Amino acid sequence: MQLYHHPFSLDSQKVRLTLEEKGIDYTSFHVNPITAKNMDCSFFRMNPSARLPVFQNGAHIIFNTIDIIQYIERIAVVSSAADDMTFSSREVVEWMHKIQDWNPKFFTLTHIPAKYRLYISKFTRRVVIARMAESPELANAYHRKLKAAYETEDKLKNPDVVKRS
């Protein structure tokens, strides 16, 4: 089992915590989104959203944090001989969904000085365009990612979005 993540990613931390709590062995691969490693063609083929974390168990690949956590729980219950191992209650799952609905991206980006945020944004867009040229078969997925980057920049200009986050 492999976990592709970044140590500072909140969603990655949730998954790593679950893996450790359940005692599941995994191989850790650090993917740094600041240096646009999540846009590399090999990673992008596996996960066209380029979001972290990504959990891979053989050919089974999961991108959604809650889905990863629930998959890990199923692995732990099935592989455990202990009778006290249980799945998360419905209430816990509901809270996970409530927490997951909050997008920390806007919160994080608003706390980065504007000149650095602009530099990172331009760098990421350039990387996406370069990767699009390298892998034309992924051009549509890269184009969606580029469009999302522009939409994020526009949303950061909206004081309501910033206040809500």
Task: Walk me through the topology.
Elements: E1 2-5, H1 10-22, E2 27-30, H2 41-46, E3 54-57, E4 60-62, H3 65-79, H4 90-101, H5 104-110, H6 114-134, H7 139-156, H8 159-164
Parallel strand pairs: 1-2
Antiparallel strand pairs: 1-3, 3-4
Helix pairs in contact: 1-3, 6-7
Walk me through the structure.
This protein has 165 residues and is an alpha+beta fold. The chain folds into two domains: 1-88, Glutaredoxin (3-Layer(aba) Sandwich); 102-164. It is 59% helix and 9% strand. The chain contains eight helices and four strands. It has a four-stranded mixed β-sheet with strand order 2-1-3-4. Helix 1 (10-22) runs parallel beside helix 3 and helix 6 (114-134) packs antiparallel against helix 7. The chain starts with a strand and ends with a helix. The relative contact order is 0.13. The mean pLDDT is 86. It comes from Dimocarpus longan. InterPro entries: Glutathione_S-Trfase_N (IPR004045), TCHQD (IPR044617), Thioredoxin-like_sf (IPR036249). Keywords: Transferase. Residues 1-80 form the GST N-terminal domain.
